[in-house]
Write the structure tokens for this entry.
Amino acid sequence: MDVLLLKNIKNLGEIGSKVSVKSGYARNFLIPTNQAVLPTKINLAKVEEQKQELLKFEEEMRAKALTQKEQFNEYELVFEVNIQEEDKLFGSITLQNIMDKLKSDGFDLPKKQVNLPSGPIKIFKEDYIVTISLHTDVLVTVPIKLIKNAEISKDIIPDLTQELDDEKESDEIVKT
């Protein structure tokens, strides 16, 4: 099915271009979200008239995204996590955790703009990133820093079990 694009769509085309897409994609997504119209003679004339206005609107959105990108300079997500043996996390850090952290830090973004390329974080290491798509041409990469929460040392655990055994023995001596 051929459609006429009203927006720049990544991997598809520019404003005003006539592209061929699957009919379900056009009927269920592009046309209802006003990203494309059917290429009739009337629509072709309207799009040519509106092309400069649409390009100006698209450039304004891009400029807005660039100013928003500046807010992410020197910003990093910091999570305090509990660690098991072999640097595994108790639980994991998911996209929803990242969305909550962004929201608490004052960034109100739709979930579809945020991407965690490595999937949920389950292992403690230093090189995790989040990519945020502010516009089709503007991507922001935000580093994630994991900090170990105050943890119980492995050396202390045997001492605790020894103390519990000593208490049980002292209770038995008291009873006799």
